[in-house]
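Exercise 7 asks you to align residues with tokens for two separate proteins.
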Amino acid sequence: MWGPAGVGKSAIAKSCAEKTATQRRLGVSFFFSHTQYVDDPLRFFTTIAHQLSTKIDEYGKALDPRIQRNPALLTKGIDAQFRELIIEPFLELAGQNVDVEDKMVIIDGLDECNGDSEQSKIMELVAKSVMEHGNMIPLLWAVFNRPELHIDDAFSPYLDSHLFSKVELPVSGSNDGGIRCYFPDKLRRRASAGTAWPSEDTLDILVSMVAGLWIYAATLVRFIMDPDLFPDQQLGLVLKFHSQQEKRIQSNTESSVTAEPDGFYQMIISRISSEYLPIFQQALYIHHTSSKKPDDILLTAVWSPDRPGIQLYVLANILGHAVMSLKHALSKLQSVLTFISKKEMYWGEPFPGSVHIFFYHASFMEFLLDKTRSGEYWLEDRCHYTALAPKVLCLFKDLYAMNGISRGTSFFPGDISCC
């Protein structure tokens, strides 16, 4: 199922998973997410195999001996994993005339799997297995993702078969009914008893604002319901913003479906003080860079293949700010990001209280990385790198001095962030 970015697509996937689970037909539900770091293609089919083995006893009995004989199966490429962990056990059962009930496999956010080629490969492997083996593989696949040309190209050759179908979910006012129920359900939790807040007229404006975009609706709710501020004042800011934005859009003949949410993102960022704005931009620039392997030698220092993203205390060290000060600066963006604490192991010792930045949805970072949309808030402006370079070099110098390390010593990627 192809659909726009937003809560709507994922909500449908979740609803399908819940309904099939109540019918005892759910085999697997897997939700890719960049923001939650669930995007490693090498863990995709192994996770599916694990979930299937807990739901289908016959499959689990066929799978276990294969892994015991060859544990390296779990570390092979996705082609080998799919063939040897998923397909061959079911073919073995079919050859033994073992009847296995069909199970649903629900995959959400394939476009958030790490690597375009891996996304295409997963789609191709699944589609090809259905064509080649039919009902010998008792899995019914439902894949939800945003429209991406490479995924579409991988799937299109199979659409002539009756075994496949494609459903597109355009951004549409047809979502208004659900969104109309969503706003009062979320907002009236903070209303005084016996009051109808927000009013029906205000709800009409909010529904009109989001124009079918669920992720925008969710962002507005988090903004209005900021626990540190007054919801009626926050709602007033939203309505004022919408009035101003309507005038801008009406005078712009090239307005797009993202014009209003982009404007709202800009408004959120504009509320950060001039003192903290460079800190915010540099922090998110490093966070973005550390979520993928950088080409730059300086930012290799904060990258680790085993820990995507970056911890708050590492950001604080690089930027030269106290952790709580940096967290306070970033908390101004609570409607689009939050913090998750994790315990991680460094050199065999636990490090409690590690905090990672978590984005509610990929659309905010997409906005920041698109210069035409984010304008002055564009993250990849050279000025951010220029400001960060001396800070990273100073951190290197301090770490060498603190640990008495020779300047000729080489580090593996991630070593500096461990320090």
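Second protein for Exercise 7:
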Amino acid sequence: MRFDKSEQTGYIYSNSNPCIMKSGYFLPIVLLSVVSFLPACEYDKVNTSVQYYTPEEFQVLSEKLNLPSTPFDYNGFNFEPNIVDGTGTLGRVLFYDTNLSSDNSVSCGSCHQQQLGFADNVPFSKGIMNRSTARNSIALAAFRSFGSYSGDPRTTLFWDGRVNNLHDQMIQTIRNPNEMGMEMNEVVERIKDLDYYQILAQKSFGQNEINTGIVLAALENFMNSINSTTTRFDNISTQNGFFLTSSPWQGFTETENIGKSIFVKNCVSCHNQGLGNISTNLNVDDNLRTANNGLDLVYDDKGEGELNPAPQALAIFKIPGMRNIELTAPYMHDGRFGTLEEVVDFYSDGIQDHQNLHLFLKENGHAKKFNFTSSEKSALIEFLKTLTDHTIAQEEKWSDPFL
């Protein structure tokens, strides 16, 4: 409440409305009147809180959606500057909406489940009409898009590396006949008249008319906001100057430090994205995004070779990120390994001598045998578990708003 003394009348004002007291009586009774004065002017208080939605808008939204009255912050890990938080909210709703599939059976969240680190727990996910996807669902939050229409050429968003930005990835996923089976104009036609989308579009983009650009931009902003940084690895790396190669790290157990050393020596050459600073004297290719890892001598799935007839493209696949690896089983493009133990066993002595096997997995011109001991395997897995973000599986702003 603001107290002003009028030079002409001597009245006391709260904001623009006066509670009148004659100036002649003011000084003698000020201490006695202040207690009674405040309740008398209670009605003059101005409500300064800002409501994002009107009561009518929030009532409409609440009939279908479980949303907060003020949007969550979706800016933290977006590469696009100044993202409107409401845009992330719109993207969240779209991400979990089965209206984006032709038979209304699946959403983006069906194959990228929050509690599983935005992956799936089966080798091949189920799309429309109970059809199986061709490859294992890749976990989100490991790699992000670098712009709606112009991606970083190093970024790969499918197992075969065919796109480098979320804009193209989303169009292809929604269109895929085994996944969602919809053209973007069909998606727009289906949702444009839904009242909650009109409200969310108005809040995000200043217009209540849904179009393809709005759908894709909102989805991208939501997906780019998903991140995994609340991990034991991140907390301890901060304390140790972020350098992965400095050893041992204070705060890690002896086993975790042994596992970290094994990872640095044998794994970081390929799996180095998003893991902090890495010493330049290591054999690391920062631009490496795809490779052959010797799963087979002959592949049913040709990877990049499905799109590129060049011999060097045969059986080349995306290198997945390591964050939340504990949550995202099964592993590999075909989900053949159900546990981390199976993965480590494979790299220990199961790598096949494929013609395109990456040189990091070769020794003397042939498939390398790492021959990890049982204790080394256990230590490596313990280190990998430090990359688990337990908050990502529970964070409300990334959860299904239809529940």
